[in-house]
Amino acid sequence: MHRLTNQVRPYAWGARAAIPRLLGVEPDGTPQAELWLGAHHGAPSTAHCRDGSRPLPELITQDPERVLGPATAERFGARLPYLLKYLAAEAPLSLQVHPDAARARSGYEAEENAGIPVDAPHRNYRDPHHKPELLLALEPFDALCGFREPSATHTDLVGLDSDLAVRLREDLSHPDTHAALRAALTRLLSLPCADRGRMIDEFVAEWVERDRVCAHAEIVADLAARYPGDPGAIAALLLNRLTLWPGQALFLPAGNLHAYLQGTAVEVMASSDNVLRAGLTGKHVDAPELLDVVDFSVLPIPYARPDFLDGRREFRPPAPEFALHEIGPGRVTAHLPGAGPTVILVLHGEVELVAEVGEGVTLSRGESVFVQADSGPIKVEGQGHVIATTIGAH
């Protein structure tokens, strides 16, 4: 087992105190949005080994079959295929969608061939991998996720006379659900630059003045105040508005348009940084690319249901790269499978980890380890709350 030192991503929407509290350090007043635990090149963890410390990707590439296990190395190559994050959102994240594997690969190759630097602000695909993700709430967590019925949004717009409201009602009246949602989102993302600010301001002003009574009543005004002139504030009306309670989880496959609004959670995903944005951001928005990737289906909210196994709650969504395990909170005795590499984070308390092979280790709040595949299954025992990530199903 290798203790980890992990990097914090200081995105503007991050909370000031949640991650410092987890790590047991004093807040410095700056936003701290995500703690990354993994080997993604954007912010790799450092593994502390007996012979010194090194970036986790370096540890893996030195002997991938031993570190990852032969099956994982054969499936994914010499790379850790998942990334675990501790996420602390004080303000809304961008309205976004992730590509599927084929689109990620072709998009990455096209931008590489075009000579676009991988860190260019206008680049869409920074790696050739897809990014399905699972989010587990640690406290009440607000989100927008997936399309609701066009008729529901149409009802919310009844009685509004602004130019944009009238046009959106026309779009949403289309008898085909996919066509209705595509038309409405396309309209919002294609507003003429000369008129966009005026049209959005008129819509928001009327929305507030009419004092709409619906699940989205406050979110439109709040998003518009945070992101003036951004069509994402109105696009929120097309999506399901929900609150996850501690222990509830969402699995977001490719094509699901979503935005996280506020709260603390852990998130595990395929190790990728491919994000296509529709709004609520100052970053690059590529409307045509996003509209090709979005799934305009109206589907049930994609709650993830756990299985209860060996003293843990196991979330195993249809993504081969990862499974997420929650142990505790409280007095715990649990066992984690040892078929591949494991990343473990203690959220609070103190637990002892004992592997089938090698020495054990005691972890406290905010501490984490990377467990090589050749360590075998792991016993977790103590008083606390623990998150672990392993390889997903074949």
Give a nutshell description of this structure.
The chain is of the alpha+beta class and 394 residues long.
Distance between the termini: 25 Å
Assembly type of the chains comes to: single chain
Radius of gyration: 22 Å
Helix percent reads 25-40%
Number of helices: 12
Largest sheet, in brief, is: 10 strands, antiparallel
Mean pLDDT: 95
What structural category arises from helix and sheet content? alpha+beta
Strand content: 25-35%
Low-confidence runs: none
Question: SSE layout and pairings?
Answer:
Blueprint: E1 2-5, E2 7-9, H1 18-23, E3 34-38, E4 46-49, E5 52-55, H2 56-62, H3 64-68, H4 70-76, E6 82-89, E7 95-97, H5 101-113, E8 133-137, E9 141-147, H6 150-157, H7 163-172, H8 177-189, H9 193-210, H10 217-226, H11 232-235, E10 239-244, E11 249-252, E12 258-270, E13 276-279, H12 287-293, E14 307-309, E15 312-315, E16 323-336, E17 342-355, E18 361-364, E19 368-371, E20 378-390
